[in-house]
Design brief:
Elements (H helix, E strand, L loop, with lengths): L23 E4 L2 E3 L2 H11 L6 E5 L5 H10 L4 E6 L2 H13 L5 E5 L13 E6 L8 H4 L2 E11 L2 E8 L2 E10 L9
Parallel strand pairs: 3-4, 3-6, 4-5, 6-7
Antiparallel strand pairs: 1-2, 7-8, 8-9
Amino acid sequence: MEGTPRADYLPEEARDRAGIDAPVAIGHEATCSQPTTVRTMLELLDVRPGQRVLDVGSGSGWTTAILARLVGPGGSVVGVDVVPELVEDAAARLRRDGLDHAAVRVAGEGELGAPEAAPFDRILVSAMARDLPRPLVDQLADDGLMVLPLEGRLVTVTRVDGEPRVEPAPGWYRFVPLQGS
């Protein structure tokens, strides 16, 4: 996270709030999550060099960039978001930082995640799900790991023999709703 300053991934008018440990509005009713929450989610996700990662709700591109640095050039990250303007800005920031092994795109109509690019070793979801999103579970590789907020609680989801195993993590969180959940 130190190698990926949050301010560099915020709109100009929000950069003065980059150092605050709170969500920051980035427009289009979206936020950039607070740093301690991102740190907790990334620790739970346990990303390794060379892995394939999906970043759902990529927003400003900040978590996508952090994930790209964690997987290194031997891995890849696909970020998806429902807001075309956020995707355009995030893509420009990733190009600026030379993170060619990370890409962001607009989520397909009625689509959750990036099924055409699956399977993924890790999936990070930065939007609140009401129910376990089976389309994302199906995009996990066997022995893959997903971290997401589910009804206010961070959970980890592993896929073993095609079936999800859900474990709650400590704490309660608020996120924008996961569309399609």
